[in-house]
Design brief:
This protein is an alpha/beta fold and 523 residues long. Helix content is 34%, strand content 14%. The longest helix has 44 residues, at 36-79. Mean pLDDT is 85; it is low at 1-34.
């Protein structure tokens, strides 16, 4: 027979059961014998310690990487010093360069161990990072060693000289640039075996445009069929620019090209007709409307409008380019080139060559005219080093025994001449500013310069990502934004130089020449 409880008895029993469970749970956690609470505490402590240890080791790893980069820079600097340099002077120089390039927090206190031989120099440094979490386990610091060796390397070297030839470089500045450039070239060719192909140079003079050479007119990478999306800008209907050149009896294409549409203007994407915007479009400055009003002053007007109407209608009218017309001198005069080749008046680009005579002749031919377009100078210098079209003299990027070097010099900021008219600017490698090819239609010089600087920085990053070492030089320049731009463009801070005047330019080029004496980091 079952046992039956009254309601009060049942309630009392349930209450005693609940109290018993509560008392048992409390006792469970208070027990000093093995149970869940201590185990839980140990697990939590272990997790926290593991995470903390990972943080400590991550900090140590980052610090070691920063030490390695600074040590590489120091090794290169010492490696450029004569072998006769004393141990003390070598160590002082190493410490100076290391300190200047170390980007980590705090200070470093360990001495750099330096060993110099006839073939190079070895640097090593040991240091430690104080721990935050591992100290609990009586590990107060994590030690590491960074080591690098610079030796006189073999292999080949390709050097692209990208030099500002804008109007501000005229007079003593262009003369000093030629002298310094000759010095660098002669230093590097000195003692090269006859017939050697281990050293080659290219030259990219830049100003408003880059002149790639009129002899390339029929190359497959030129937009000879008018396919690019920018080929018909400033015309009322499709027109082939080469046909228009042929129609004007006293002019011809001089070899300048426009910047490709973004992002190809800052890339080395190989041109292909299947992607027309990768092709290169010849420059063609349209005939500006006939108008003597001051608002249109300094126009590049070289033909009769052959129509009436608005500024745009007269500028884009194609009928004025009928066969056998002749271009008259623009308001700027013949020194700026007459007609559609307006401002295409730099010396020609010289592709990579192993001929010292060829590259030095290119240096001698440089002239100072036009405005400053650093970004187009950069990308065309890059294209001379590339193994792909348009210039194919460069060795493959996979050739580990070859070094690709780009030396960029400018004496001014990026600049396109603004105008308070419908075009917003003079014609340049980016067409007219009204065409929005720099992501702005502003006639503000500072705004346009800022947009060109953005493209320049992107081109620098792309070039460095391709494995090319960039040296940059600011020459008699006091524009802080451009100085920062050029410094950031250099591969490392020690690859940036400033020459405040012509008297110091020789020294800058001489130091670069010493660095390029086939030194390389071997480990």
């Amino acid at each position: 027979m079952g046992i039956h409880l009254s309601r009060n008895q049942s309630s009392a029993l349930n209450s005693r059961k609940r109290w018993s469970k509560t008392r048992n749970i409390a006792a469970f956690f208070k027990s000093d014998r093995g149970n869940v609470a201590p185990i839980f505490a140990v697990v939590i402590a272990t997790v926290i310690f593991t995470v903390g240890a990972a943080i400590d080791y991550s900090r140590a790893s980052q610090t070691r990487a920063q030490f390695q980069l600074a040590l590489d820079a120091a090794a290169l600097a010492v490696g450029q010093m004569p072998n006769s340099t004393s141990q003390a002077d070598s160590e002082t120089r190493a410490a100076q360069v290391f300190d200047a390039n170390y980007q980590g927090a705090g200070t470093w206190g360990s001495q750099i161990n330096l060993t110099r031989t006839n073939s190079g120099v070895t640097l090593a440094i040991s240091n430690e990072v104080q721990t935050s979490f591992l100290g609990i386990a009586h590990i107060p610091s994590i030690g590491f060693t960074a080591e690098t060796e610079v030796v006189q390397g073999g292999g080949s070297i390709e050097i692209a000289m990208v030099l500002d030839n804008s109007g501000s470089m005229s007079g003593s500045k262009i003369s000093a640039l030629k002298t310094a450039s000759h010095q660098l070239i002669e230093t590097l060719f000195q003692n090269m075996p006859a017939g050697s192909t281990d050293l080659s140079f290219s030259l990219t003079p830049f100003a408003t445009f880059v002149d790639i050479g009129e002899g390339n007119i029929n190359q497959s990478w030129m937009d000879t069929q008018g396919l690019s999306s920018i080929h018909n800008e400033n015309f009322s209907q499709p027109a082939n620019r080469f046909d228009l050149y042929n129609n004007i009896s006293n002019v011809q294409w001089e070899g300048c090209v426009e910047a490709r549409p973004y992002p190809y203007d800052v890339q080395d994407t190989e041109p292909n007709a299947s992607n027309p915007d990768t092709l290169y479009v010849p420059n063609f400055a349209p005939d500006n409307p006939d108008n003597e009003d001051y608002w249109w002053q300094f126009a590049n007007s070289y033909l009769d409008d052959d129509t009436s109407g608005s500024f745009t209608t007269r500028q884009e009218n194609l009928s004025k380019y009928d066969a056998t017309v002749s271009a008259s001198s623009s308001d700027y005069g013949s020194q700026y080139n007459v007609g559609p080749s307006f401002l295409c008046n730099q010396s020609e680009l010289v592709p990579l060559t192993t001929s010292q005579t060829t590259i030095e002749n290119g240096i001698d031919s440089m002239v100072a005219r036009g405005s400053t377009n650093i970004v187009q100078g950069l990308v065309w210098g890059w294209r001379t080093l590339s193994p792909g079209m348009p210039f194919t003299e460069g060795r493959p990027y996979t050739d580990n025994l070859n070094q690709k070097i780009l030396i960029l010099l400018s004496d001014g900021q990026n600049y396109i001449t603004s105008r308070s008219n419908m075009n917003r600017s003079l014609y340049s490698a980016y067409g007219y500013i009204k065409d929005n090819r720099l992501d702005t239609t502003s006639s503000s010089t500072s705004t346009v310069t800022a947009h060109m600087n953005t493209r320049t920085a992107e081109a620098c990053d792309n070039i460095k990502a391709a494995g090319i070492t960039i040296f940059t030089i600011t020459f008699d320049l006091d524009h802080e934004d451009t100085i920062d731009l050029m410094r950031d463009c250099a591969t490392t801070p020690i690859h940036y130089f400033n020459s405040p005047d012509t008297s110091q330019l020789d020294d800058v080029f001489a130091e670069i020449a010493v660095r390029l004496k086939a030194l390389r980091i071997s480990r």
